Amino acid sequence: MTDLADIVSSAFWRVNPPDADPQETREWLEAFDALVQSEGRERATFLLRRLLEHARARRVPLPPVLNTPYKNSVALAEQPQFPGNLELESRISAIVRWNALAMVVRANRAHAELGGHIASYASAADLFEVGFNHFFRVEDLVYFQPHSAPGVYARAFLEGRLPEERLAHYRQETAGKGLTSYCHPYLMPEFWQFPTGSMGLGPINAIYQARFMRYLSDRDILKTEGRKVWAFVGDGEMDEPESLAGLSLATREGLDNLIFVVNCNLQRLDGPVRGNGSIVQELEGLFAGAGWNVLKLLWGSDWDALFARDHDGVLLKRLHETVDGEFQMYAATDGRFNREHFFNKTPELRELISDMSDADIDRLRRGGHDPVKIYAAYRAALEHKGQPTVILAQTKKGYGMGHWGQGKMGTHQQKKLDDEALREFRDRFSVPLSDDDVAQLRFLHPGPESAELKYLHARRQALGGYLPSRKVAAQKLAVPALSSSERSQSTTMAFVQLLAQLMKDEAIGKRVVPIVADEARTFGMQTLFRQFGIYSSVGQLYDPEDQDELLYYREAKDGQILEEGITEAGALSSWLAAATAYSAHGTAMLPFYIYYSMFGFQRVGDLIWAAADSRARGFLIGGTAGRTTLAGEGLQHQDGSSHLAASTIPNCCAYDPCFGYELATIVEDGARRMLEAQEDVFYYVTVANENYPHPAVPQAATEGILRGMYRLREGSQLQLLGSGPILREVIAAAELLRKDWNISAAVWSVTSFTELARDGMRAERERRFGHKTTSWVEQCLAPTKGPIVAASDYVRAVADLIRPHIGGNGGRAYVALGTDGFGRSDTRAALRAFFEVDARHVCIAALA
Questions:
Q1: Which one of 14, 625, 844, 847 is most buried, counting C-beta atoms within 10 A?
Q2: What pTM was computed for the model?
Q3: C-alpha angle with apex 330: 324 to 332, nearest 5 degrees?
């Protein structure tokens, strides 16, 4: 017998050299088998570990042991009984497959530019169906592979949750009755829970979601025991850095509530994922090395007899020799080709399938297409404790699409099929449709009293309800009034004080989630460590070095602060989990993620866009903000563009306050909008590290602060606008103009160019349709006189956002000053002079 270790050789795939002494090898193996039989597996594991230690001590080179044989992890002898009705489930799956295909083809026959994907769901259909019928409980959270969305719609149609009219308007949404291309909660807020359309975001968000569920439970906010997070991802998607970024966290936290299902159809958009290698073996090595429980789901039940007869391991050896490019070829060809090019490689393999016809060989399914094997893998994953689990499910891309799509290089782009291809698909899956039904691409619904529909509903009722389904049931929470200090400090410190006020509040204090990416001390948040604690799922197993200090580093199982380490993507994913807890868990939370503002929209903008799609509610705090205010850190750290990026996200309310009372007003109002009014908005607020005095709040300033601008000082000849710390340069410029040129300049604090611009666009549109509407910026500036100069610590395009909306005479001068270009290291004074946003240059712009 061939030793499996001779076949499985390294972290990826390779065949070891031939055995120099098979007799000796056989004797060792027989002795080991006797040990297992007589003393059990635990003793065998102990001796293996001791042997490995001894080998290392003798400096014997050892290959990585992260890979297992290229076969199913769940052995046939350990396979549980399938509990469902295979015939009915097969018929349901066939109907869903047809409706998903018809949806895409109909849309593209009518409008070729609409796009869509058939092949991805064709490969994943059985993986989804077994989950829907037996595993996805209504309280579970499922991150669906986005290209498979048509299949999810097709099932919801059978469930009665989506009418046929919506399927007929797939990817045609503007009339309000269509379906989104992928998983978009913003556009289908009662259906999709999580946006996964941007590759890599589903995996990382699923990991941090599973961790956040533990956080909720450990802090006695919500009991989440028994709930699972499922993430369906593609093998090509695993090349995205975000797909793998959270693997070690999932292991450290022991997230056995997390299950990844990687659809290993071996193809990405352009071609094979690993044509010259094995993506299954590669991913097994990566996940096993990260400490995950890895389950291979590679071969269907049709292969069981072949493996049982493979006494010498020749079949397994052949599978290991085969690279993915070859497996793709075998998927795209028939049984005759597979016989000649795979099985006829050796006499032993030829003999192994001697009693099989070409049709029998063609019917050999891969594991991801066999509900019995899928059920076994899912059950093993569900029962595993102490580790997250990944299931590597091997499938064929375009499964069932015949020579029009199965295993073909361009199958991902296949959106149209002719009538012959459609009839072949119908026949392949025994879909009960006439030739005319097929030609017309009619959707199939067997009727509410059919055996299929009764079974489908019974299975979902047994699991608690239907998925995906997004519900908003969080109770409204009262937000306390916030106060600010007038002492000399930075707006960052003012924010930390406001955060502490919220965390101490009896009504919402426990719901506040502070999140940092290893920058708490930078932002002065170490004052919160002792009082509120840093969350750790195991508590604190050591005495911290600073334990004798007042503000020592305290970790606790019920800690409130999420300290994520140096991972903006991870921290943003935690923020997103907390910001959507009101819908995912029916529990409103109020997350504050504070970070270097340059490393927000510029670094994890894709995740922030996903947060917008998710209808997230929370605060993003851009710390050390402003290109000149950060001073010495230089080009990579100095942010001059985040507010421009924020302005492009419709439900992101962006503010750049200068004074503590402005910040307090903004945070209080934002919290009320999210927790009391339950609006689907989130806030981006920039805070800086420059210390200066903060005045008392002026009378009647609240409306202006929230709408984007208010007059700070009166003046009749010039209008000077400033935001953030640059407002102080504008105030100084007004003084210079008064003293040196006897010019009276009004000073306006602009807390949000973005809010002003949006209000301006709304007013502009309403005027086009005959309504007499005046924007806030026009209400403020139109009655005034003189040129307008606007300055900020960001690129000039930020201040230019309001240029079309200032009103008044058409020829009125409007000058925008900003920090265009690259940042650099120097003092604040030098940098502001360099970028021409200091008081002197504001004066020059006003006088020019």
A1: 625
A2: 0.93
A3: 105
